[in-house]
């Protein structure tokens, strides 16, 4: 269960505690990083995240720091300079907890890689999820102790498929990013899909069918 803000991270831990199958992350998504300064005391906000992460580790439920990173595709939510400042700050969480990082990189590869490079000794590894970058971006990420997460957004074009082919299988993670990032019929990757399930619109919910348009966990297959 992914934490995208301090409050979401608290909710994620609460959900994970009530279900023995689930684990969670603690962190602030790049589009939410204004919350540090809007809190009135960014350092106090950071310490609350750290305390929550330590609490979750003690309970055996918090397994990564994130989702954090850079998203220059949605700067209307948070300016790039604030994203960079608090992405870098969250490496302190990873260093203090010795947890891996769950990372987000969207239209920001150069700045993202520069920040990771500066902090590569402060975290134990992690995954850059929902990867849609170039071959150069892929190769740079692979120089870090990093996995690359693949979903439908990674398989839209023939160029995307060529980039994905170059990810070593032992450094690849398969994800849904549920409920988003399905492999759509217009995607180049659809030609490789062999498994199908019945689906119905959410208004006609049926527990034996997928909800149409929702990228459910079975679709990692």
TrEMBL record:
In alphabetical order, the GO MF annotations are: 3'-5'-DNA exonuclease activity; metal ion binding
What CDD domains does its record include?
TatD_DNAse
Q: Which PANTHER family match?
A: DEOXYRIBONUCLEASE TATDN1, TATD FAMILY DEOXYRIBONUCLEASE
Q: Where does a divalent metal cation 2 bind?
A: 104, 129
Sections of the chain in a coiled coil: none
Q: Which family does it belong to?
A: Belongs to the metallo-dependent hydrolases superfamily. TatD-type hydrolase family.
Q: What is this protein called?
A: TatD related DNase
Keyword annotations for this protein?
A: Hydrolase, Metal-binding, Nuclease
